[in-house]
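User: I'm putting together notes for a lab meeting next week and I want to include a structural view of one of the chains we've been expressing. I don't have a solved structure, so I'd like a prediction I can at least talk through. The sequence is below, exactly as it appears in our construct file.
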Amino acid sequence: MGVPLRRRSGRSVYRESTPVAEVAGVVESAWTGWVGCRRPLRVFPDGCVDLVWDGRGLAAVTTVRGVLRHELPSAEWTVGLRLRCGVGGAVLGLPMTDLTAEATPLRDLWAGRARRAEARLAECGAPGEARSLLEELVAERLRDVELDGLSIAAARALRSPGARADRVAAALGVSERGLRRHVRHEIGVGPKELQRVLRFRRFLNRVEAVARDRSSLADVAAEVGYADQSHLGRECRRLSDSSPGALVRSWTGRNVPD
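Assistant: Thanks for the context. Below is the predicted structure for the 258-residue chain, given as structure tokens.
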């Protein structure tokens, strides 16, 4: 589930924190969102899975195949854990190719364990308490599963702008077909598509620099691994349904040419 372009927008606030050590190997970050009124949200692909409590239910949200349009409920706060890229299949207990790009109720995957967690989360009076329960839930789950170290290493290696799938496979001691099988199981797409998503995520991390006139779209495109600004534009529209300039405008509110 992608990180918002702005950590504070209108009445909504998004804040990340470091997960407890017991789950840090599989959890990239814990987060809290103060939502305010009910509203639609675009969630951009990032290759990760989020376990989200929105006050009504516990869901696994995955967005690796493209932008997700998600309706935020009216709630005082929501909490989530962002799983590291490469561990989703193991933690959830099924191939990530079996999940669609949407919020899947966790009770459909973990049955009674998820329902018991939801009952406890419903009694939480503060987001910190709910985050702790989510971390406890993941720690309990980790005692029952074996993580795929190869997929974790592959996801890390494929983040590099110059990475090539054949070289990553060779470095990890598997064939390209084997690499593709591991990555698809744990993340939901093959190495080439994952690279496109990770490159787009690098661009999103640089949107603020463009919005604050610290860089240009052309410079950012080159920095994060696109062939040129036109390449950035095509990929941005494909993965977000928006142009690069529109994403910058959504951050700053002013006119930015594509």
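A couple of points you could mention at the meeting. The longest strand covers residues 27-34. The mean pLDDT is 88.

User: Perfect, that's what I needed.
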